Amino acid sequence: MNLPLGFTDSSSDALPLHIVDRAGFAQWRDTQPATTGAWLDAHGFDGAPSSALVIPDADGRAAAAVIGVADALDPFAYAHAPLALPPRAWRLAGRFDAAPLAAVQLGWGLGSYRFSRYKAPLRTPAQLVIEDDASAVFAELAACIRVRDLVNTPTEHMGPDQLEQVVCELCERHGARIEVVSGEDLLTQNFPSIHAVGRASHRAPRLIALYWGNPEHPHVALVGKGVCFDTGGLDIKPADGMRNMKKDMGGAAHAIALAELIMTRRLPVRLTLLVPAVENAIGPDALRPGEVIATRAGISVEIDNTDAEGRVILADALTYAGELQPELILDFATLTGAARIALGPDLPALYSNDDALAQAWLDAGTQLRDPLWRMPLWRPYWRYLASGIADIANSGPSKMGGSITAALYLERFVPAQTPWAHLDVYSWNDADRPGRPAGGEAQALRAAFAMLEARYGAA
């Protein structure tokens, strides 16, 4: 088996790694040799979170190491270790229950990650010895890394066609089927809003669809916003707002990675993945403010702001998902800055028309330390999307409740009887933190899979 970066299955020269917290540090220290205690005291080590210390032998060579953590079930509590310790093999000292062990392994993998497509990392991470079956953890790690890699890749190398290629490769690997509707075919096959947003780019807009699983199993539809770059259209973004807009396909990255995880783990569902993939570009044929566009649902939309394009392309994809009559629809989208103002960068905003579905996702997030926060579908705010000449507008003059109004817009295109949840996700780390390097990030993805696994059962 090819192990992920930061892991080894060879323990021949591995050194022991102790993991402690402040509460248990004194008890652990009392079990150590006097020389080790003196070394710990000399360095002021007390098991503080994100601390690490190499312990020498009598000859000054590394003999062991100890790291400090806070929450034993939080993968990121361990994520500092791979780059804080010397780049050699380490084996866990002591016994671990399944959940803390999984957290250690996942955190180690996340802490070992660096995006290396264009620049070699400055150093290799320390390696953790794997002595058990970690395939489930590695599948989750691969999904998180999939999101990071897709989001970190510049639009030059991650446009709508490259997103299609990624999905095509997943289909080949897992025996799924792919269908793509692109360019002018979007109009003839009734996906007009996807076409409207992407028509100005030299890269053809498209709807990418993956189908997988046993037809007898419950049907789950995943939808991800795939705006591969967002200039804002003719309502152009300022430079600082446009700088990181390669990440505006972060919703698609989450949906693709979740689909891959479902197929890898053979979850007993029938899966549909839908990715409307476009580039919101500026050109002679760019969508203009004030235009009224058609949608697959037959709802006319006045374009108030061309920078509110994500909800426009998702409308056709959600409508199509509803036509397939799934048991459940989940959509992921880097949809609004308003969600970041409300909740900050670490908490994706969850909206749902089904209380049980929302609570199950929230509970999974709490259990796995993969958090999200539920926001209200406050329907009186529909007034902010009123149009004088069309059924609805895609935005409005008020900045009030921007994340809520975007979610309300999406809800309009989901069948009322279908359980649906929408995640307004940032998909990004603004600055380096242990296990969270600046750049693309997977958020509430592990929680989504755990929720689906609890709902439908393991393979």
Automatic annotation (TrEMBL):
<dbReference type="InterPro" id="IPR011356">
    <property type="entry name" value="Leucine_aapep/pepB"/>
</dbReference>
<comment type="similarity">
    <text>Belongs to the peptidase M17 family.</text>
</comment>
<keyword id="KW-0031">Aminopeptidase</keyword>
<feature type="domain" description="Cytosol aminopeptidase">
    <location>
        <begin position="305"/>
        <end position="312"/>
    </location>
</feature>
<keyword id="KW-0378">Hydrolase</keyword>
<keyword id="KW-0464">Manganese</keyword>
<keyword id="KW-0645">Protease</keyword>
<dbReference type="Pfam" id="PF00883">
    <property type="entry name" value="Peptidase_M17"/>
</dbReference>
<dbReference type="InterPro" id="IPR000819">
    <property type="entry name" value="Peptidase_M17_C"/>
</dbReference>
<dbReference type="Pfam" id="PF21337">
    <property type="entry name" value="Peptidase_M17_N_1"/>
</dbReference>
<dbReference type="InterPro" id="IPR048816">
    <property type="entry name" value="Peptidase_M17_N_1"/>
</dbReference>
<protein>
    <submittedName>
        <fullName>M17 family metallopeptidase</fullName>
    </submittedName>
</protein>
<dbReference type="InterPro" id="IPR043472">
    <property type="entry name" value="Macro_dom-like"/>
</dbReference>
